[in-house]
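Weekly structure sync, notes
Attendees: PL (lead), two postdocs, one rotation student
Agenda item 3: pending single-chain targets
PL asked that the sequence for the first pending target be pasted directly into the notes so everyone works from the same version. It is reproduced below exactly as submitted, 432 residues in total.
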Amino acid sequence: MEKQRTLASSATLTGGALHTGENVTLTILPAPPDHGFKFQRTDLPDEPLVDAAAAHVKTVERATTLVQGSVKIHTVEHVLSALTGLGVDNALVQMNANEPPIGDGSASAYVRMIEDAGIVEQEAPRRFLEIKEPLCVELNGSSLVILPDSSFRVSCTQVGPEGRFTQYLSTEITPDTYKQGIATARTFVFYEDVKPLMDKGLIKGGSLENAIVARGESVLSKEPLRFSDEFVRHKILDIVGDLALCGRRIKGHVIAVKPGHGINTEAARQLAQRIPPPPAAARPHAATPGALDINQVMQILPHRYPFLMVDRIIAFDGDLKATGVKAVTINEPFFQGHFPSHPVMPGVLQLEAMAQVSSIVMMRRTDNDGRIGYFMSADEVKFRKPVFPGDTLFIECELTSAKKRLGKAQCRCLVNGEVVSEGTLLFGLIDK
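Predicted structure, written out during the meeting:
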């Protein structure tokens, strides 16, 4: 059984963006199983997250742009391509601008980042989308077909204006083939398209250092072509990144003719519709037979009013994950002073709720029966949105380390599906 993978540590890249021309710092961080790929704008208030999902694709002219709410992330395809191509399933991509660095126009800078950070296996099984029935998409003279296959293969035909630079390549996508033959292929533009793109306010950061310009039958570039068929290789790079927006690893053979971001992301959207919803027991915030009511919670935790921050546990996922609920009402005693005219749940009490749910997960292990969890430290804590009376707090906790008397958990609190706080907690267990 193949396992999910994430980064062993974080890695950072700084550089200019292709379309906006802005200087941007991008950091890729490890993420828990089933997290998938998410982007985070650290330059905006509350540092909002954007899921890398086909449903959030809004514009596809010369790049793929994601929009969730009022937050935009431009040109996501190269980052997603590198992560997918190297076999990463879960990662958080933080940026202090709305577009990643372009590097040299390929995905090689991101490949180096990921390799520097390292890749580690996780406990959860890898989730695939196996193509059972062919998928056919046609759009503006382009076509993309995905057929059943036991691996992920891409066969692509690139055709330029008037049939110039017609190239074909078929390759299985594995970490080795991706790194050696796809990742270093640079983006390109035809000379006659440069002025229209500039007139639209695009490619402000473009230069011969990060793109190839095809003029007539010649190419303009700071260095020679890296492959005789570099254009079609870059098209495959984009396909890998755009199709990652379906949310699963694909087992299928992609056959693309004159592809672009529009048809790629439309195929990703249709693929996402083929993914069945998880069973009720696996859905976030769905009650399961192993859930705990308040009386069972109090049999495990020693906390009582006014410091019991968990009303019930609504889901366990194996032995290491749980989701708890706290109904936040105006009757909470802390609202008397925090703040009388503007009641807001203190962030430290959200942390306490995380610690209590984590303790429940830890103490469910039979060898921890009868012990008390002591909160020891909190790292990477972020408070993203205020929590008000009337909100229902969902507390998700996953043990990332569980020794005999010491536990470490990755936790977050959500309201209406949005993360309001998160952190990594360390706690110890002692005998009562």
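Discussion points:
- Helices lie at 77-85, 108-117, 175-181, 191-199, 230-243, 261-274, 294-300, 347-363.
- Residues 347-363 form the longest helix (17 residues).
Action: rotation student to compare against the earlier draft before next sync.
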